[in-house]
Write a structure and sequence with these properties.
Layout (H helix, E strand, L loop, with lengths): L2 H42 L11 H7 L4 H13 L3 E4 L3 E4 L4 E4 L6 H4 L6 E12 L2 H7 L6 E11 L2 E11 H4 L12 H9 L3 E12 L2 H7 L6 E11 L4 E10 L3 E4 L7
Parallel strand pairs: 3-10
Antiparallel strand pairs: 1-2, 4-5, 5-6, 6-9, 7-8, 8-9
């Protein structure tokens, strides 16, 4: 074989080797991500009661994965702040996510009452002219005054969510002297109107924390937060509470029960 052909042949083999190596790395990354998802579920449902994960070799055997894949999966969970490696101990659970159901209309304190006391720091409260999107959702004329409330909500002293709330002023005025620091707005709305809340429309998405939100929530700037937009109606159908809630994604998980209907 001429020298030039041997060079081309060798180069081709090298390219094949590099491509195969990259494919193996991608496969391991995919497997690590899959394993991290399974372990995360166990972490969040007390699957490791003593707070310590099994040894890497045990995880590798249980999940039929290589040790490298297990290490990569644990690295992903460590980057999320869920686990940490302690010398002489192993991999331990260092963070907890609180469950927030999406299939019942409940305030945060009602939802998390089993996990501790929710407190509210009222950062801003007062009448503001309703921006067009707010007026449209609350069925009031644009520019009409509505009650605006901004609250930082904590569980066990840890920042959990930043809530921005808009309420029609004919209802909101009665909330001005209410105990917003220790009471869910939902309970106050029902007390003021004499009606039960009926239903809510929700949208949930991940957004990047702006500098202000990150500082208030004590989260890294640019961190992903869960944004829940919720428009709540009274039992008679009137929209009374438009909220934009930023949850720390590392401290809360959303869940619900869905039924299929065609």
């Amino acid at each position: 074989m001429p020298p030039t052909d041997r060079i081309r042949d060798h180069a081709g083999q090298g390219a094949t080797t590099v491509a195969a190596h990259r494919a193996r790395r991608r496969l391991r990354a995919d497997q690590a991500r899959q394993l991290a998802d399974l372990l995360r579920r166990q972490l969040l449902t007390d699957g490791f009661p003593d707070g310590t994960l099994p040894h890497e070799s045990t995880l590798a055997s249980d999940y039929r994965a290589s040790r490298n894949t297990v290490r990569q999966a644990l690295d992903l969970l460590r980057a999320e702040g869920l686990v940490e490696r302690l010398p002489g101990v192993g991999t331990v659970v260092v963070a907890q996510k609180y469950p927030h159901g999406l299939d019942r209309l409940m305030g945060l304190a009602e939802t998390l009452h089993e996990h501790g006391h929710v407190t509210n720091e009222v950062r801003t409260m007062g009448a503001v002219a309703a921006p067009a999107p707010v007026a449209d959702r609350l069925h009031v004329p644009p520019g009409t005054d509505v009650l605006y409330i901004e609250r930082l909500r904590r569980l066990g002293g840890l920042p959990l969510s930043l809530d921005l709330t808009y309420i029609p002023l004919d209802i909101g005025t009665a909330l001005l002297g209410a105990d917003l620091e220790n009471t869910d707005v939902f309970r106050l709305l029902e007390a003021v109107t004499g009606q039960r809340l009926g239903h809510a429309e929700i949208t949930l998405e991940a957004v990047t924390a702006d500098a202000h939100s990150a500082a208030v929530l004590e989260a890294p700037r640019g961190a992903a937060v869960l944004m829940l937009e919720r428009l709540t109606h009274l039992a008679d159908g009137r929209p009374v509470d438009l909220e934009f809630i930023r949850f720390r994604g590392d401290r809360i998980s959303m869940s619900g029960l869905l039924h299929r209907s065609l």
